Amino acid sequence: MSSKHVDRLSMLPEEIWLHILSLLPLKFAVQATILSKQWRHTWTLLTNLNFDGFHPIHDKQRLETFVDGVMKYRITSQVNIFRLCYVYWSVRKSALSNWINEAVRLNVRELDIELIRLELPLSLFTCKTLTKLRLSNGRYDKSGWECPCPVNLPCLKILDITVYGDPFLNAFKLISGSPMLESLSLQILLHSGEEEYIFNIPTLKRMKLSFHNCSDTNKVVLNVPNLESLYVGGKMFSLFVMEDVSSLVAATIKCHSIYGRGDLWDALLKGVGGVKSLSIGKVPYISYISPPPGIPNMSRKVKQLVLEDSWKSKEIVQVLESCPGLEHLHVQKSAEFDWIAPKLVPACMLTNLTTIKLKVLGDMKCDVKFLEYMLGNGQVLKRVTIIWKSICNIRQEIMLCSQQLLKLPRASRDCEIYVNETMLRSTGI
């Protein structure tokens, strides 16, 4: 700092400034080379090729010219990451094929492509070094993409794909050709076939499935003995059959609607009832002629339950009664002025439930009756946390409500109350 002529950036070790530049989209990494003479040609050494950073107002031709130049003048023999994601753009088929072919030749490890009218070269589907692959059509593009058969991706561990139409033209070919797959994220859009979706993947540990506008004649069969985490989202149109999910620890169920098929909801929840951590979105409304679906009895293994998207009090009670071994409850409640207490205190509140986290989106006064019941009957409660987001004068509202909360009787002497992570005390917050 004492000298005005020392180029301190150039004095950094090569591995440090290469790492710094590799964290940037390549467009900005190239621009950053003007900061130091020694960096002038460093972009040719970068192994992370992230081509994000071109604004939509720019000409697509400028993007293609830039990518062509980068792929032509590279002097390294390795590409770790090749990323090209533009939800509103397409590129020439020949250009994309050339770029991916070159990335494969340079032993690419991670490939992330999102473009309109996605067409992929054959070399991608037999890449021996690929460990992570993400493929998606651009936004509003329903043309879909296909892959040849057979597929051979011997090192692929992470697969994240969005497909339009028949997943047997692409998704299941990729899955069957990836013997080391550990993480799968699959979103299926606009498919009305009658096939069964059978996932027989012994190596899989994490799975995320989302279905939108698919037929209600499909069946999803999970034979994934090493699966630890499962997410199911979108619209519930399919019957889930859990052939083997013996290692499942955590599950998230966020389905928008069922349209008269409460049995699908019941089957799915029963199938994941043995997990330790369960997160459920809003209980889907079936139709005005059918009652809302219930919560089937869970096993005592369910220790943590997260209820998202504004649950009503009676629904929360039903869940508590269904989870006798529950220890931790996280809930987002809808604003209700009337709280109807159950006739019998749920078993988990007498023996296991130790923490409650309540997310309040509006007036917390609406939830005082609910909190009064939970505090007055939770025999082993240790902590109740209230996360309150209010558009009102939040400090004043917290002070008023905290005084009321402190007056509520507590069945557990060890129970502490926190509002926005601050513990309430008899003298105030």
UniProtKB/TrEMBL annotation:
InterPro entries: F-box-like_dom_sf, F-box_AtFBL13-like, F-box_dom, FBD, FBL13/AtMIF1-like, LRR_dom_sf, LRR_FXL15/At3g58940/PEG3-like. Gene3D superfamilies: 1.20.1280.50, Ribonuclease Inhibitor (3.80.10.10). It comes from Tagetes erecta (African marigold). Signal peptide: none annotated. Residues 347-420 form the FBD domain. This is F-box domain-containing protein. Residues 12-52 form the F-box domain. SMART domains: FBD, FBOX.
